[in-house]
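Technical appendix A lists one of the benchmark inputs used to test multi-chain prediction within the project. The record comprises three sequence entries:
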Amino acid sequence: MTPTLEDLRPLSLDLALLLGAFAVLTVDLFLPHGRKRALGWLTLALLLGVFTASFFVDVSGPAFAGTYLGGPWALMWKRIALCAGALTTLASLDHVDRHFPTRQGEFYLLLLFCLTGMTILPGVRDIIPLIISFELMGIPLSVLAAYAKTEDKDGVHKHAPEAGLKLYLVSAVSTAITLFGLSLVYGMSGATKLDAIAHAQLSPLLSVGMLMTLAGLAFKIGAVPFHMWIPDTYQGAPTPVVAFLSVAPKASGFAALSAILLIAFRANQAPLASVLVLSIVASLLVGNLMALPQNDVKRMLGYSGIAQVGYMLIGLYTGTSYGVGMLLFYLTGYLVSNLGVFFVLEVVAPRRFGVDVSELDGLVRRAPWLGLALLMFLLSLAGIPFAVGFWAKFFIFMAAYRAGQTWLVLFGATMAIVSLFYYLRVARAAFMQPPATNETLQIRPALAAAIIVCLLGVVGMGLYPAPFLERAAAAAQAFLEGQG
Amino acid sequence: MGLSAYLLVSAALFCLGVFGLLTRRNAVGILASVELMANAGNINLVAFARFNGNATGQIFALFSTALTVAEVVVGLALVILLYRSRGDVLVESASELKG
Amino acid sequence: MSPIQLALLATFLPLGTAFSLIVLPGVRRAGKLPGYISVVTALVALVSALQLFAYGLEVHDIARVTTQWLPHSVLGASSAAPSTIEIGVLLDGLSVSMLVVVCLVAFCVQVFSLGYMADEPPADFGRYFTWQSLFLFAMNTLVIAPNLLQLFLGWELVGLVSYLLIGYYWKKPSAARAALKAFWITKLADMGLVAGLIVLFVNTGSFNWTGTVAVAGPVTLLLFIAVMGKSAQFPLHVWLPDAMEGPTPVSALLHAATMVAAGVFLVARAHPLFEQAPNTQNFMAYVGGFTALFASIVAVVQNDIKKVLAYSTCSQLGYMVCALGAGSQVAGFFHLTTHAFFKAMLFLAAGGLIHAVHSNDIHHMGGLFRKMKLTSGAFIIGALALAGVPGFSGFFSKDLILEEVWERGLYLPFAALLIAAFLTAFYMGRVVFIALFGKPSEHAEHAHESGFAMTFPLVVLAIPALCAGYFGAELSGMYGEATHFHLSPVGMTASALGLCGIGLSYFMFGAPQGGAALRTVFAPLGRLAASGIVDKSFLFGYRTVLRGFAGGIGWFDRYIIDGLMNAIGYVTLEVGARLRPLQTGKVQDYVYVMVVATIALGTFAAFLR
């Protein structure tokens, strides 16, 4: 079946992104040093442009003989990725300009390639492009994490190489495991299309293959027991990169897992269900319990992210259209809340690699709006009403109850209480401790804009979640019915 | 030779890779072990392609190889970075972040 | 203004005040200004509430305005008829009555705070009033909620503000710990509310309490778990005594009148739902009765005046819960209203006493009646109301509860409530006689009456504490069956017991020499009395049996129940800390774990069919 131009239509947004990335590369070649900051704005414009275009271009339909399927599901994930990318770009403009002035072009380029991988992934319906786009997303991340390669004069970032190396090694091992697993899956089913794999006969070799594939994919989202790279990487990498790391791989990871688990393995889910449950329970326990003694906020957020992944996995585990839809909604809420917290950290301590809780002392007095924003983000992560995080948890629990997993609801709710302890600890530092220094915080406008957008998202979706919930539910339904 | 022979070889290769991964101190050695693991997958793919009768496996193996190469390039760059900042390529020296 | 507008004003004006105070640090730190702004806001809310109440006296169901918030389609298919989730305002007899209670007590407490917190540094003073206004917003949201979901939102926010206010003196480690403990215990109980909401919604398609509900049993039980936490019923009551670490006006507002009453309000609100679950109601009656008795026993041996009042609140909440368990929404809610007034007054008066002697211990007080007539007078009125002395408001509401419980045939809880009535009168008498009469201790030498800010609210609250009982019929008619008061054997027994309790406490603590008084009373018994056997046996009885027993129960409460809660917190933290060394920092270890896990899970999966 020869590909035609029509095949490119569902991928037009992704292609635009890719071409835009090359445009940035070209512009970088011609920009003199000292003017490199413009590349950041160019990237931002590109991302916003593609995001806006997503509302006007029709990208639904199959492509390349069914290996790609565009539709509401893929579209929603694309938008999530573009938002995360745009917000990160906005927030890192100053950081990148200040700390790596000569290498800005490559930074944005890597980010764009990563985003391209993220936007292609959700529509893919074949394991070959799946693994390729997954890796396209993953490889630049290790480079980004290690981006601050030398100790600059502030003595900053000296742990970035270690952070990047850990991410890379774990990533490489996972890729190898996934490839081996996928080879077994292909072998036992004779096909690489996800739909075709669903018809395979269950056999021990197939089970092993499925398990290994899932294991390899699961590390990206940070599910236990594949989570151990997260705290170290979060602590060591530059803060804007960590912000992106905390949401992007999770989004892609879940997109990939959904595709694999709910399409390719849908007929043979029995052995995987119990493994999933173990992971959920372990993630909730490890994430919450190990966040408690942390003093470094970035590390704490790493563990909290692991716990949040546990909740999202609950949605995946139910396997119902409603559950998966709520997973999508949860991810959206988590995105704005988590990015928001990291952006606040970036304001408070742009010069440290790790951020101790005490550095947030008295934030509400140094910068009241910032303190308030931080409080909203923390409340959202903790699941307290009037912030989007509450709805996210509430509806995931509802999905679990609907699927008959009442015990998961109770367990998850109890773990949510534990999470209160560490989130409140940060809030308490910001609101009740006296500030350690009285120097005024400098908030550059780009970073402030990013924080404001996140705050609007958290509060807006918290007060009026209806449109997002509807979109998410519809997307999930389309996905499970094979409409993309 | 039957399919199982190929599968056994690839499994053995995979295990060797895992063993090397866990025991080598040199970062380049670890990368080489990861390569072993990835190539074990490739052997599987080609073997299955032969015995399933379609060429999809071979195509998959080609893509997989390209992927692995890209990954290794990045990996080596990171190893060089580590060397520049620490003076050695021993992985255990990169363990300051913990807890 | 229309009723809806009044309700929205009363709810959102405090939010505006709180928000402005947060984002305008200049205003927040400007001396007494934030206090005045907050008090004026509370006054406006109070006036609105009173106007609504006036409407409510004529028309029992005033208005119900809702708008669609979450369309049904986002919530998945449900077997029940499609409905939407709404938010809005519900104004009926119950909500406007509660609104008046909340706004009146809040206003009085805020005025009182102007005086009580006057010595605090400006930044903290402003912070205090910010949270006070935020609390008013949250509580009102809860009160006017037209469905359980909105009620829950207000409920959670109220819990958050309670945490902020209990931990006001955050520099004190015990206060910080108490705040956290209150928060997580109530949060844990709130999971029952979440679970109940989910079950309700999945089975009926809405969060309303009307209509026939098949799963009423499980839903109400889950809701009641949350009530047990919020309204401090055994065994989830342990946070309330600790919550006394907060400033006394906070204890008056949150932990006597409003926040802890929210649980009772929830049950009263969802009465149609609870009517369909007689098992839950029985359970509630027993829990309430037990709590009423248990808490009153522990209160007998407390020396901290605030702790006495805290356990007393716990006990009275038990009365309300028991009444609701007996199926009487009217009795439970009526007692909620009378209790709010006299308990808040008691707390504020106690605050005045504490302020005068700079100590919470009743033995550091003494003879304060002579020096602080107004405050002491208010305290005595409150104590008499609490003890259920005929004529005071507490008498009417307690009486109604006892009657309803008796009618329902719940004899064991009834007995518990009766004994609790006796003990209530006894421990309040004890406090009154030790703190207000008798010889002053050296701490009390320099005591003097408090200023206007701290006495005016007492006068205001004394009015309903004295009179509310007489309007029982009108008030109860607003939210249920109009119940007229009538004298009954039950009521008389309770009153008699109350008077006995007071009398006993007088003999023990009031008269200058308890023993001597006893002797004169019993003199006609001749030789027996002269030999002092009666005094001795009586004192023996008190010391060993009552005080020992009460002390034992108090010990059990403090070390076993409370200790269990503390232990849970400690273990959680420890596990987290112990797991830390697993993250060795060596990437090969991380990969090792991954590989081992993959192998293990792979083997596990391979043998599963």
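The CA atoms of residues 399 and 491 of chain C lie 5 Å apart. Residues 522-530 of chain C have pLDDT under 50 and may be disordered. Comparable benchmark entries are summarised in Table A2.
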